[in-house]
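For the sake of clarity, the format in which proteins appear in this thesis is described at this point. Each number in the token line that follows is a code from a learned vocabulary of backbone shapes. One such record is shown here in full, so that the layout can be seen directly:
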Amino acid sequence: MNPDRSFKEPPLGISAVAGGRGYLQQELAAGRMLGPLPASIPDCHPVHVNRVGVVPKGHIPGQWRMIMNPVGLSVNDGVDSALCLLEYMSVNRVAEVIADLGVSTLRAKIDIKSAYRMIPGHPADRPLLG
């Protein structure tokens, strides 16, 4: 974290649409989210958190997708981008690599449900993880 970076104060509360509260409860029950956290728990304060909400998945009725409100409010806004630069490969670059490797080249893509929420964080790191 960049200790000199000041954060905007996030709005209070959880923005959820009808039915989304059940999704958030499932995430809490699965241990992929924590909260609400009382001030009496010493290892979780101070902490910067992302505002959480849910939106319906357009192609699956009754299913929800978690969203964050990162614009100026994200945990990642405190990370110095010079230290943690992430660049994704473009589709054109992937095509170039496959063409360079030849006709027998295989490519695979997987989508892991709740991938980032499946990685546990140590309680001592909660102020850094949000």
In short: The first helix runs from residue 20 to 29.
